[in-house]
Design a protein that fits this description.
single chain; alpha+beta; twelve-stranded antiparallel sheet; 12 strands; about 45% strand
Length: about 300
């Protein structure tokens, strides 16, 4: 079995395969994007390949990308600083789920929290894990801290689609078969931006961009050899913005708890389970001939409590 704060390579491979296969963007947003319009579909298109651009046009695009990346880098730094500061006192235990001893005797309940002393134990967060799939720029980050319960994920893109993931996990080994529910308590801040730059207004072209933030609950079983098997998962969209040639920014502050933020799963006696809560961002952008789009997603969460109950 791996050390308390580490994931085995086998676990990481399974998680990356499962996370990488998740489409994230809703059908609604993808339908709004429709089929992007490419040069050649409208009249009076002009040159149809990058080789037809002048040096000034190429330099204009390069400067747009440089300035947008620099602006995003500054915003990411300030966003994470402000979110961490503003949420540090946002949690009130009086608004939280019941403590274990307050559950009726016939109900199973376990409440976990940050490992503030770093000593480990049965009722604290046990493992943090983050993943930023390549290619990675200086604005693409993901962090998970079991000692504070803080998670953050940021992602910026000008071409293609990609994500960043941060998750915190706990261990649970039930003594009897039972249906269990996983319910986190998460305070979160988000920032989303989609931007379009039209370099030639005479070309009728549209390109997609999207920014999304998602809270995930993931349950996997781990056997004695360390083999990880995904048992259940749920992704709840906290925000999604975008479309064709969009220009929009949006900031968010909210709490995720109860309702949609509960995942039931069938637990087996004496099976060891890894129960995780993930904060994930998704971005999509496209470099067309006459139009370029970009996207930025920034997500900061603090999870003072995670509860598993029957």
């Amino acid at each position: 079995m791996p050390a308390p704060y580490e994931r085995s390579n086998a676990e990481i491979i399974v998680l990356q395969e499962e996370l990488g296969s998740e489409p994230f963007l809703s059908d609604r947003l993808r339908s709004l994007q429709g089929e992007e319009q490419q040069p050649g579909q409208g009249p009076d298109q002009g040159p149809s390949s990058p080789s037809g651009r002048t040096r000034a046009q190429r330099e204009e695009r390069a400067e747009f990308r440089r300035s947008a990346a620099a602006e995003t880098a500054g915003h990411v730094k300030e966003f994470l600083r402000h979110a961490s500061s503003s949420q540090s006192h946002a949690f009130s235990p009086s608004h939280a789920v019941p403590a274990p001893e307050e559950f009726p005797s016939h109900v199973f309940g376990a409440t976990y929290g940050p490992d503030t002393e770093g000593t480990g134990g049965p009722d604290v967060y046990s493992r943090g894990w983050s993943w930023v799939p390549p290619p990675v720029t200086g604005t693409d980050t993901a962090r998970a801290d079991v000692r504070t319960g803080n998670l953050s994920a940021t992602r910026y893109i000008t071409s293609g689609e990609n994500n960043s993931y941060a998750m915190i996990s706990v261990w649970l080994t039930p003594l009897a078969d039972r249906l269990l529910n996983v319910m986190p308590y998460v305070n979160w801040n988000g920032y989303a931006k989609v931007q379009t730059r039209v370099f030639d207004p005479h070309v009728d072209e549209q390109q997609p961009a999207a920014s999304g933030g998602y809270l995930g609950i993931i349950v996997g079983s781990v056997d004695a050899s360390g083999h990880y098997t995904l048992q259940a998962r749920k992704w709840v969209p906290l925000w999604e913005i975008g479309g064709l040639n969009p220009n929009q920014t949006q900031s968010y502050t909210a709490t995720a708890h109860g309702g949609d933020f509960v995942l039931p799963f069938q637990a087996r006696a004496n099976q060891r389970y890894d129960i995780s809560v993930a904060c994930t961002v998704h971005v999509q952008g496209k470099q067309g001939f006459a139009v370029e789009t970009l996207a930025d997603s920034e997500f900061w969460c603090t999870m003072p409590q995670l509860q598993v109950f029957s």
